[in-house]
């Protein structure tokens, strides 16, 4: 991509407003500027009678969006800056905006859809996956916690499928995304251009239904539901790991290894976030909670160490502190959820009003 090209392409085609994430070399990772542009376009189109629906796609062949620009976040964290807090505040507002958008919001979740990419797609009203979709919330692998409304979505997935996804950080297929409640329709990737063209003249739901496969391919993760529900129903990460290690299913024991490779602190905070999200009544309340947790992650050392190991130095050998689950105290976990005072995001209050 030419550096002079915009990071978001904003197009009008017939009755369709089309937004294209345009950083293909970075798998369309979200910058703060991109979030602002997406929000401005949604504002402009909401009361435009000529726009019947909005479509979100990603440039290039690799995926819709690989998440937020974590290198920029890492540098801001090391510098003790405030740019990331502002970015997340606007990003979370955008997630809530998408979820409540009054017109059909269609997302082509083709290829990689990770982290923040889930936030700009899975909160939409018409969510399309393909045979190429690989969707995941890999935050625990970098000492972070699922955000962008991810704990709202995953806490409401059938059984404990969402808990498995959050604690392993492993991506899932398009059919599994549908089972998890993160997507609606399966459309072969080769049909996406024709569907996009149909959206310029047809109602979004009708067009998506016409192109969707009646028989969705098998969902591999859904086939593992028995051991997933049994093991991840435990109240602590330690007990979840014990159940996974003791289960006869090879996939369960493999999952235990995946979990244990992640940040012990992030794992415990993630499980607490998911369980608390189940009892919260709105996406906005969950986003407010996620903002508190995210800022506390930014202030700690785990996130910077995770990004260093996975993205900067790429030694894949993070030095977590504490290094084991048993050393992460309940008080340490609880501190992530403490109020932020004047820094609160306040989405729930803004929605309900005084």
Automatic annotation (TrEMBL):
Keywords: Hydrolase, Isomerase. GO terms for biological process: L-valine catabolic process. The keyword Glycoprotein does not apply. GO terms for cellular component: cytosol. GO terms for molecular function: 3-hydroxyisobutyryl-CoA hydrolase activity; isomerase activity. Its EC number is 3.1.2.4. It catalyses: 3-hydroxy-2-methylpropanoyl-CoA + H2O = 3-hydroxy-2-methylpropanoate + CoA + H(+). It comes from the Bacteria. Residues 17-337 form the Enoyl-CoA hydratase/isomerase domain. NCBIfam families: PRK05617.1. This is 3-hydroxyisobutyryl-CoA hydrolase. It comes from Arthrobacter mobilis. The lineage of its organism: Bacteria, Bacillati, Actinomycetota, Actinomycetes, Micrococcales.
């Amino acid at each position: 991509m030419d550096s002079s090209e915009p990071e978001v392409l904003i197009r009008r085609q017939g009755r369709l407003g089309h937004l294209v994430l345009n950083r293909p070399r970075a798998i369309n990772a979200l910058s703060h500027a991109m979030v602002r542009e997406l929000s401005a376009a949604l504002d402009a189109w909401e009361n435009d009678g000529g726009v019947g629906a909005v479509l979100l796609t990603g440039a290039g062949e690799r995926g819709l969006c690989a998440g937020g620009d974590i290198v920029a976040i890492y540098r801001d964290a090391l510098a003790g800056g405030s740019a990331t807090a502002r970015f997340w505040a606007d990003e979370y507002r955008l997630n809530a905006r998408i979820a409540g958008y009054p017109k059909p919001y269609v997302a082509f979740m083709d290829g990689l859809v990770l982290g923040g990419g889930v936030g700009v797609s899975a909160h939409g009203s018409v969510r399309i996956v393909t045979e190429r979709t690989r969707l995941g919330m890999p935050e625990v692998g970098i000492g972070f916690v699922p955000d962008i409304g991810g704990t709202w979505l995953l806490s409401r997935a059938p059984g404990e499928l969402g808990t498995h996804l959050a604690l392993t950080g492993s991506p899932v297929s398009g059919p599994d995304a549908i089972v998890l409640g993160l997507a609606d329709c399966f459309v072969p990737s080769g049909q996406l251009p024709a569907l996009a063209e149909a959206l310029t003249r047809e109602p979004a739901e009708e067009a998506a239904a016409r192109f969707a496969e009646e028989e969705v391919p098998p969902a591999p993760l859904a086939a593992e539901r028995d051991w997933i529900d049994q093991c991840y129903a435990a109240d602590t990460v330690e007990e979840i790991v014990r159940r996974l290690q003791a289960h006869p299913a090879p996939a369960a024991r493999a999952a235990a290894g995946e979990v244990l490779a992640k940040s012990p602190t992030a794992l415990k905070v993630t499980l607490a976030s998911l369980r608390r999200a189940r009892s919260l009544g709105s996406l906005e309340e969950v986003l407010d909670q996620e903002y508190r947790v995210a800022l506390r992650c930014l202030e700690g050392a785990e996130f910077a160490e995770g990004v260093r190991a996975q993205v900067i130095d790429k030694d894949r050998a993070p030095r977590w502190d504490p290094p084991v689950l048993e050393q992460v105290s309940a008080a340490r976990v609880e501190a992530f959820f403490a109020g932020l005072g004047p820094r609160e995001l306040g989405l729930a209050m803004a929605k309900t009003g005084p």
